[in-house]
Amino acid sequence: MRASSRTANKTAKKTGASPKVDIRDVAALARVSIATVSRTINYIPTVDPALAARVWKAVEELNYFPNTQARALVSGKSKLLGLIVSEITNPFFPELIHEFEQVAIARGYEILIGSTNYEPKTMELCARRMLERKVDGVAIMTFGVEEFVLDRFTAENIPITFIEAGTHRPNSDTLAVDYRAGIHEAVQHLAVLGHRRIGFISGPLSLHSAALRRQAFLDSLKSVGIAVNPAWMIEGDHSLDGGRDAMKKILANPDRPTAVMCSNDLTAIGVLHALFEANLKVPDDFSVIGFDDVHLAEYTIPPLTTVRMSCRELAEAAVKSLLSHIQLVDGRTEATSKSVIQTRLIVRQTTGLPKGALSDLGGANHPGG
């Protein structure tokens, strides 16, 4: 052991602190050069796998924590990916953050999170914080983004991945969600069950994603020959309270639908609560379908039928997109690409036959009643 390390360790023993370990100690224990340790902990793919395995074993034995700031100064890379989401209180976004972090860590990156709550000023502050921390790339998962924020990242040549509302910029990719496929499955599912009176509670229509989901629903109704009733098309706000209030508006109308589809799961859970308050049973009195398939959807009573938009697929596509730009030699490209995130219906227990369908069927088969 080097003299400096011995001195540090003696001091540590006297004070009760942990011995200080640096990259040279790792190199000595792994029997490799300091350069090999540096390349290994920076996840450079050209390192011989056998040498890398020795380095990681030494890192674990010595409980070594690389100095990320020093590493960034040397490599010019922070090994940080930014992730900007809309609101941390919607369970979809914590699940997305979890998946994004898992994928990023597996690729040798940490993440820096910002939540905008749909406020341009907050989004600007998120962007500033990420620029100050010199993130290597940013995934913008807000379902809507201000142009001036994008300008900040573009000016610093930082790769960006959008969801939905991407623009043609250098170092940018768009992740498009195929809302139409999952929503069409949901409408078909209700139609096969016998529903012809179907309502829809959207998110704020100022959001591009909410408008796309609403239009997908309208197109799906048309494709199966079901008429739209404007009284059953309610604009919500993607929240629990918004779902409950929207359902109360539908229930206040004497001409009611037999099924309601919602633009997200939080809205659907609010709808379930409103139906519970009205002493109506799901799915006996109303069928309900959500969108997102958050983990909580499995644990509502009854478990929620919903359209799945995979957080894992979103995370993997976003990280892959960012790294493809980061790893370019010149760090810049004029080419943009578009990945499609699939959606599909997950049938649980909030959908069933319309109320009275069995008695109507019985009447049809036995005219005498």
Supply database-style keywords:
disordered N terminus, disordered C terminus, 12 strands, about 375 residues, 434 Repressor (Amino-terminal Domain), Rossmann fold, 6-stranded parallel sheet, transcription, about 15% strand
Q: Which fold name corresponds to the CATH topology of the largest domain?
A: Rossmann fold
Q: Quickly count the domains.
A: 3
CATH H-level superfamily of the largest domain: Response regulator
What is the chain-wise order of helices and strands? HHHHHEHEHEHEEHEHEHEHEEHEEH
Low-confidence region ranges:
1-17, 329-335, 364-369
Radius of gyration: 27 Å
Multimerization status: single chain
Number of strands: 12
Amount of beta strand: 15-25%
The helix content, as a percent range, equals 40-55%
Protein name: LacI family transcriptional regulator
GO molecular function, one term: DNA-binding transcription factor activity
Pfam families: LacI, Peripla_BP_3
Keywords: DNA-binding, Transcription, Transcription regulation
Fold and architecture overview:
By secondary structure, this protein is an alpha/beta fold. The chain folds into three domains: 3-66, lambda repressor-like DNA-binding domains (434 Repressor (Amino-terminal Domain), Orthogonal Bundle); 78-178 and 311-342, Response regulator (Rossmann fold, 3-Layer(aba) Sandwich); 179-309 and 346-363, Rossmann fold (3-Layer(aba) Sandwich), CATH 3.40.50.2300. Helix content is 46%, strand content 16%. It contains 14 helices and twelve strands. The chain has helices spanning 3-15, 23-30, 34-41, 49-62, 68-75, 92-106, 120-132, 147-155, 179-193, 208-223, 240-251, 265-277, 311-326, 357-365; strands spanning 80-85, 110-115, 137-141, 160-163, 172-177, 198-202, 233-235, 259-262, 287-292, 305-309, 338-341, 343-346. It has a six-stranded parallel sheet with strand order 2-1-3-4-5-11, sandwiched between helices. The chain has a six-stranded mixed sheet with strand order 7-6-8-9-10-12, with helices on both faces. Helix 9 packs across helix 10. The model is unreliable at 1-17, 329-335 and 364-369 (pLDDT under 50).
